[in-house]
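Supplementary notes for students who missed Thursday's class. We covered one full example, reproduced here. Read the sequence, then the structure, then the short commentary at the end.
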Amino acid sequence: MNKKLLSFITSAVITASALPFTVSAAENTAPKLTKEEFLDLVISEDSDFSDGGYIYSDVLKFDAVDNQYGGYDLIVYGIDPKNVYYGAYHGNEKHENWKDYTVAMPAMFFCGVGYYVIADKEKSAAYTEGFDVYYFMNNTIPGVMPTNKTIVDASANQHLDIAKYIYPVITSGDIDNDGMITASDATLVLQAYSYASTGANMNLNTTLFDYNKDGSINASDATDILEEYAARSTR
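Structure (token representation):
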């Protein structure tokens, strides 16, 4: 799809009082785009945004996930924590189009924080609603207080496969991403199993959590991780 079909103009800023950023929006009545079409519309291929994209980067990674309004939210990941300071993201890897978009921003920048981008219904030929943009930092658990959360908590909170957005390398069984298979990894698997037993929608990374590759994440994965940990401890 030609991104020149899509243009945005300044609109009123939507505000929120909590992180991650959440908003209320009318149901999107435009024809459902594919994820590839959505990304093609909002990601620019050149830094001067001559094609109307919202964000440009030749370093960061992007994904699109379904939202509750029938459209998509934008995921931006691969952010190096060293480029985040003074409570805001100042990395030079990305450029945002502030001329054609209005963005409601939280006061502080944290891993997993969301920004709401407003699209103008009259000017947009293909995508008629706004969307959230979530930023994820490498090796950082999402949340305002990361040290008080695990990857399981974050996955349950945001209903996303958090691991693929914050772990540059996915190693089966290394749930906490510390480079080792230990008892703490088994504990996290049991936490995930407990969440899942209550019906929580977490979209857990199966490569990471399904250690025995039987197609499910349960206590047996924790048992196998403990056995592997014990075996390695005696070598």
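Commentary. Strands lie at 55-57, 61-66, 72-79, 84-85, 88-89, 94-96, 102-104, 114-118, 131-137. The helical segments are 35-42, 151-158, 163-166, 183-197, 206-209, 219-233. If anything here is unclear, bring it to office hours.
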